[in-house]
Amino acid sequence: MNFNDNNAFDLVVARLNKLNRLSSACTAAIAALPFVRESVPADAHIVREGQMATHCCFLIDGFACRYKVAHDGGRQIASFNMAGDILDLQHLLLSVADHSVQTITAATYLRVPSAALRLLTQEHADLAEALWRDTLIDASIFREWVLNVGRRDAKTRIAHMLCEFAVRYQAAGFGTPERFTLPMTQEHIADATGLTPVHVNRTLRVLSESGLIARDGRKIVIADWKRMQQAADFDPLYLHGAVAVG
Amino acid sequence: MPISFRPVTLDANHGDEAAMLVFRDERLSAIVTRLGAEHGGLAGRWFVETLFTESADMLHVTLSSLTDLESLLVRS
């Protein structure tokens, strides 16, 4: 167990500060949380559905996804996550994992005992409010994904997923929404949008040929952000400012 | 349970235009497309676009030949 690793929680604190201004005492208490730092390769499981959950995991480097699997083996990705995200905040209060979390790229995360974090929320109302907001925004994003998978056509679905990723990528300080590198494969995109890899490949081609995006491997350029937002039916309202820069 | 094929050209904007209507007992059973070069390692394979039988596990699979598809349909 590591203690007092000076900067381990910086990304998480920065993210929580966007949700609710944390006091200096709270920030110091977070920095003093016990944790285990784990570095894992791509496709490693951080959480498996059905396991007892005693920790909350804070992603500090790399990308991950949350998913569930149908009885026939079909996987539905429910979110993509990037550094700064809390991957399984529900384990603050729920003791069994109801879905799995897997890395998309090599990643580093902090495993924090749920009991220690829970105690901190009882001592610091500002932290409790930040985590509550994070949970509510997560739920809002899940609702948007239900709409995306259930009611939008393939082109709009994938365009929307790209817009959300671009905006969150920018907010996390990794680049601009007009130019970014996707960490996920076409299989990941297919599992996130309820399509097949064949349909994803075709749809990315259609988006390219219509001039909405330019592609070079996984590098994406969005030439006209406003036009892309329209094509994607993307209104960032559902992100509730949590991704606003600054 | 004879299986027959009728080649068609799809009015699609994604490049995979070569397709087959697949009939079982002269009833339309599936529509498959030939995947083009842009699909990399899947190029040349047949993709089950639509299936009108209840063999849901065949939907959206890719097959190396129409003979494979015929075998699957006969068995289903």
Detail the topology: elements first, then pairings.
The complex is a heterodimer of chains A (246) and B (76).
Chain A: H1 10-19, H2 24-31, E1 36-40, E2 45-47, E3 55-61, E4 63-69, E5 75-82, E6 100-103, E7 107-113, H3 114-123, H4 125-151, H5 154-171, E8 179-181, H6 186-193, H7 197-209, E9 214-216, E10 219-221, H8 225-232
Antiparallel strand pairs in A: 1-7, 2-6, 3-7, 4-5, 4-6, 8-10, 9-10
Helix pairs in contact in A: 1-4, 3-4, 5-7, 5-8, 6-7
Chain B: E1 3-9, E2 18-24, E3 27-34, E4 46-51, E5 62-63, H1 66-75
Antiparallel strand pairs in B: 1-2, 2-3, 3-4, 4-5
Task: Describe what you observe in this structure.
The complex is a heterodimer of chains A (246) and B (76). Chain A is an alpha+beta fold and 246 residues long. Chain A has 8 helices and 10 strands. In chain A, the strands form 3 sheets. Chain A has a 4-stranded antiparallel sheet. In chain A, strands 1-7-3 form a 3-stranded antiparallel sheet. A 3-stranded antiparallel sheet of chain A has the order 8-10-9. Chain A starts with 9 loop residues before the first helix and ends in a 14-residue tail after the last helix. The relative contact order of chain A is 0.14. The model of chain A has no long low-confidence stretch (mean pLDDT 93). Chain B is globular. In chain B, 18% of the residues are buried. Chain A binds chain B through residues 72, 196, 198, 201-203, 205-206, 209, and chain B through 13-16, 35, 38-39, 42, 47, 57, 60, 62.
- What proportion strand of chain A? 15-25%
Straight-line N-to-C gap of chain B: 11 Å
What string gives the helices and strands of chain B in order? EEEEEH
Identify the strand order in the major beta sheet of chain B.
Answer: 1-2-3-4-5
- Succession of helices and strands of chain A: HHEEEEEEEHHHEHHEEH
Radius of gyration of chain A: 18 Å
